[in-house]
Amino acid sequence: YRADDPPELVARQARAWDPLLDWAAETCGARLKVGSGIKHVPQPAEAIANLQKAIARFDDFELAALHTVTTITGSLILALALTEEELNPGEAFAAATLDETFQAEKWGRDAEAEKRRQNLLSDLTAAERFLRLLEA
């Protein structure tokens, strides 16, 4: 779900998220639809099925980390990209918090919000580290 205004935010979202949607289509066979606003956008059944297949290969420990990353980023695509090392934790977090970052740049930063962001980034980094340790 994307903004339809202001143009600068729309452009940032496209730069950050379009390559990830292309990656999901190529890697997972999941071409997802994009919408704006809060109205539900139904996704193609084939894309959902292919994402289920992508998740099914994870063991219980990997699923725990995938769940953590998905919860923090709000995105299964970001979580899968992180597990596949398409993104590092900082890149995944930047994509996930793009709107918040834009608002903070426009209106100023809030100390509590910044502390929350740092804690979430720390948790995301720990989940990614856990995934890498499982591979070792």
Task: Output the keywords.
136 residues; mainly alpha; 7 helices; 0% strand; globular
Describe this structure in words.
The chain has 136 residues and is mostly helical. 73% of the residues lie in helices and 0% in strands. The protein has helices spanning 7-28, 45-56, 60-73, 76-83, 89-96, 98-107, 111-135. Helix 3 crosses helix 4 (76-83) and helix 4 packs antiparallel against helix 5. The protein is globular, with a radius of gyration of 15 Å. The mean pLDDT is 96.
Secondary-structure map with pairings?
Elements: H1 7-28, H2 45-56, H3 60-73, H4 76-83, H5 89-96, H6 98-107, H7 111-135
Helix pairs in contact: 1-4, 3-4, 3-7, 4-5
Mean pLDDT: 96
Main beta sheet strand tally, sense and closure: none
**Poorly predicted sequence stretches spanning 5 or more consecutive residues:** none
Structural class: mainly alpha
Count of runs of 4 or more consecutive helical residues = 7
N-to-C span: 36 Å
Based on CA atoms alone, the radius of gyration comes out at 15 Å
The level of helicity is: over 70%
How many strand segments? 0
Question: Could you write a compact summary of the structure shown?
Answer:
The chain is an all-alpha fold and 136 residues long. Helix content is 73%, strand content 0%.
